[in-house]
Amino acid sequence: MNYHCIFICFFLLVFCGAQDSPEMTSPSGLSIDDYPQLVKDAWENNTELLPQLYREWGNCFHERGEKEEALRAWLSILDIYENTWSLSKDLAEYIHLRGYSEEAVEILLTSALYHKLEKEEYLAGAKISLAWKEYSSAEKFLLAILQQHWLEEEDIIPSATNLLCDVYEKQIKWEQSQGNEEETKTLSQKLVLLRKGIRPMDVKIILTWDTQTDIDLWVTNPQLKRCFYSNRITRSGEKLHNDNTTGLGPETFTILKAQPGRYKIQVNYFSGESIPTQVQVKILFHVGTEKEKTQVFSAQLEKNGDIADIIDLYFPKDLK
Fold it and tell me: What is the pTM of this model?
């Protein structure tokens, strides 16, 4: 059969309603071996056909039980246009309906990391994950809302908090049904803390000092982005919550999920009467969990402009 004729037949089938059938695998008269040429022709002549071609090609592989080839065809859709959150979400839902739950969740989470999502999009990701009973994914989307970018936006906090409580309750029921006592206990603790307004996090740093001067807390993350009074939130979610300029502190810095690599903790004598000042830096690890522990460090600053290196914190890639 002439490939040009095949291409025309496929075009007519698509726009005569064949694309509306979610169970369709291959248009009549086409075999799986026809798709490479059809895709090539579409790239050269009509890219609007490419999403449908890749979906149907993936469906053919899926029906033959060739999972990797099916995923490769479906994921090619993300290469056609600019990879947006909306496109990733639609593709994730499409392959989830065909039984590829783990891969669908990976698409959602990877896209969320790649794109700077709006708060409504994080909520949408959480709700999709919850509908799929992918509770870990839902938790990640909701914790991103609660900790990273919108701590002062009261409209989003109650919705995200209530939804996260729902996630934990469902997780607890599931773990109980499986007889997993340890995981049930951990999740129950998270739920109690969340209802009290305490959000679990990897690190919390509190700076105080003993004179009426302006001492600043500096934290440089593994991407070498310094978080301090004029740059209080990083894209990774670390945050300096307040800048105390009149003395004694506290200044508080939090890390929801530590990134692999080094965090450099420093304090800076920003302004004041240049009198000797004793500073204390309290670092809490695994806040709101059974593993919570505290370390306290002290340093002496003598005058304006002094900088003290407190500690370098290192986090491995497999941090739990």
Answer: 0.57
